[in-house]
Write a structure and sequence with these properties.
With 232 residues, the chain is α/β, with parallel strands linked by helices. The protein has one domain (8-221): Rossmann fold, CATH 3.40.50.300. The two termini are 17 Å apart. It is built from 7 helices and 11 strands. Helix 3 (102-112) packs across helix 4 (117-130) and helix 4 (117-130) crosses helix 5. The strands form 2 sheets. Strands 3, 6, 7, 8, 9, 10 and 11 form a 7-stranded mixed sheet that branches. The structure holds adenosine-5'-triphosphate and magnesium ion. Residues 17-18, 20, 22, 40, 42-48, 92 line the site of adenosine-5'-triphosphate. One of its GO terms (molecular function) is transmembrane transporter activity. Residues 8-232 form the ABC transporter domain.
């Protein structure tokens, strides 16, 4: 363990969804440039933790500090600006825009950032290629397989060059060969650019691509979370 200041740190987070206590004091840190795998059984609070860390959901208690700023206390406008410019998110359940084709979904964050359409399409196309879905540019989400949608979501999360990528089961609908292809593309990109990644997965082979693993159990991060030997 190094003693450098983490890029993103959540301390003692609690979060209830109605009567369900999804997080019960979860503490986790991400150092700049590392890939952290978050594992745990279904319902253990993984997605809730990711949403809190990415500033999508505010925790009930605890703190989320990103690059010296308290995300959990940031006004909504600054928070959404920060999310748009510094974070990329792959949601567990798609969230591609149904009316837009694959290429338009991937190009959208660039166009929102002021990149011209032709340039945005060119870059989107490169990202679709990296994730192995070139040739499916014109498909709309309703016409894609689950695995294709996940690859398009991954391309969309990375296209703007975010500092942190949050990916919630990005290979959940892929077979092992396709998982390997997507993970190789992800790891290659983030190592090249020094991007920090929080990756939720239940697949040990996918977790093995990470530098460390944090295991969630009933809304807390277990003490036996490990440094993985098999870092790339
Ligand atoms: N919007 C919601 N409304 C009510 N309960 C919710 C909501 N979101 C999550 N929960 C509950 O909170 C708990 C944690 O959910 P969460 O989605 O964080 O788990 P998870 O570890 O991501 O599970 P999975 O592996 O199945 O995706 C679960 O018991 C779930 O039923
Ligand atoms: Mg989940």
């Amino acid at each position: 363990m190094s003693n450098e200041v983490p890029l993103l740190a959540a301390r003692a987070l609690t979060k209830a969804h109605g009567r369900t206590q999804a997080l019960r004091g979860a503490t986790v840190e991400l150092r700049a440039g590392e890939i952290l795998a978050v594992t745990g059984t279904s319902g253990s609070g993984k997605s809730t933790l990711l949403h809190c860390l990415a500033g999508i959901v505010r925790p009930d208690e605890g703190s989320v500090v990103y690059d010296g700023r308290r995300l959990d206390q940031l006004p909504e406008k600054q928070l959404s600006e920060l999310r748009r410019t510094e974070f990329g998110v792959v949601f567990q359940f798609g969230q591609l825009i149904p009316e837009l084709t694959a290429i338009d979904n991937v190009a959208l964050p660039l166009m929102l950032a002021g990149v011209r359409r032709t340039e945005a399409h060119k870059r989107a196309d490169e990202w679709l290629e990296r994730f192995g879905v070139r040739g499916q540019e014109e498909l709309r989400p309703g016409e894609m397989s689950g695995g294709q949608a996940q690859r398009v979501s991954m391309a969309r999360a990375l296209v703007t060059g975010p500092k942190v990528v949050f990916a919630d089961e990005p290979t959940g609908a892929l077979d092992s060969l396709a998982s390997e292809q997507v993970m190789t593309a992800l790891v290659h990109t983030v190592r090249e650019t020094g991007t920090t990644v929080l990756l939720i997965t239940h697949d040990h082979q996918v977790a093995a691509y990470a530098d460390r693993e944090a295991r969630l159990l009933d809304g807390v991060v277990r003490q036996d979370s490990v440094d993985l030997e098999v870092a790339q």
